[in-house]
């Protein structure tokens, strides 16, 4: 999301997080950062395979993800927690229903086009595609919209991702998302509210 801090401006020309600073090198955008880190640290091949066709499948999913899963899943968190926190007003239930309908369409495509009958998105091993997908899909769960409950294929995929990452690390990585409702109890600086409320509302348009 946007950041007005001076430090963010030095790392990312877009003044957005996430951003990476590695020595004198700076990089923005989460997908670019993931790919950079996987190459720099010579991660196990299954994360971003050397095989050109398997790698293309990861790239294919990452390209699709941003205009489908990412276009809907995070909005559940904005609607149920963040926008009410910054505006002081809940949004109409119709807005959440609209987002959930869009997310349901994306999840159907995810299962039928990408997951199919495979263990993971590109085959028998976990990849960066699975990591990017699961982080987004845990956001509705964190605000009480359990998208896995009535989707056994998706639920089993999540279980396999948890096992591949390690359950302890998995829940540690998603701790903030799963406890996002606790934010509703904090006090927000009025000036910050004034700055961010219009930005958050704009994201839902």
Explain this structure.
By secondary structure, the chain is mainly alpha-helical. The chain has 2 domains: 1-43, Glutaredoxin; 50-204, Glutathione S-transferase Yfyf (Class Pi), Chain A, domain 2 (Up-down Bundle). The chain has helices spanning 6-11, 30-40, 52-65, 69-87, 93-115, 128-142, 152-165, 167-173, 175-178, 190-203, and strands spanning 19-22, 25-28. It has a two-stranded antiparallel ribbon with strand order 1-2. β1 and β2 (25-28) form a beta hairpin. It starts with 5 loop residues before the first helix and ends with a helix.
Characteristics of this structure?
205 residues, Glutaredoxin, Glutathione S-transferase Yfyf (Class Pi), Chain A, domain 2, 2 domains, two-stranded antiparallel ribbon
């Amino acid at each position: 999301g946007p950041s007005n801090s001076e430090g963010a401006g030095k790392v990312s020309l877009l003044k957005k997080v996430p951003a990476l600073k590695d020595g004198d090198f700076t990089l923005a955008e989460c997908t670019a950062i993931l790919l950079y880190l996987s190459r720099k640290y010579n991660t196990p091949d299954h994360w971003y395979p050397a095989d050109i066709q398997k790698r293309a499948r990861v790239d294919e999913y990452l390209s699709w993800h941003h205009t489908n899963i990412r276009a809907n899943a995070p909005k559940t968190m904005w609607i149920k927690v963040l926008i009410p926190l910054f505006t002081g007003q809940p949004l109409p239930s119709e807005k959440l229903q609209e987002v959930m309908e869009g997310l349901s369409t994306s999840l159907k495509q995810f299962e039928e086009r990408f997951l199919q009958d495979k263990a993971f998105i590109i085959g028998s091993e976990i990849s960066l595609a699975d990591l990017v997908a699961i982080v987004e899909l845990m956001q509705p769960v964190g605000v009480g919209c359990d998208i896995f409950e009535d989707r056994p294929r998706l639920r089993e995929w999540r279980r396999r991702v948890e096992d591949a990452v390690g359950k302890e690390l998995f829940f540690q990585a998603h701790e903030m998302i799963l406890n996002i409702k606790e934010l509703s109890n904090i006090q927000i600086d009025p000036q910050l509210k004034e700055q961010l409320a219009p930005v958050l509302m704009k994201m839902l348009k």
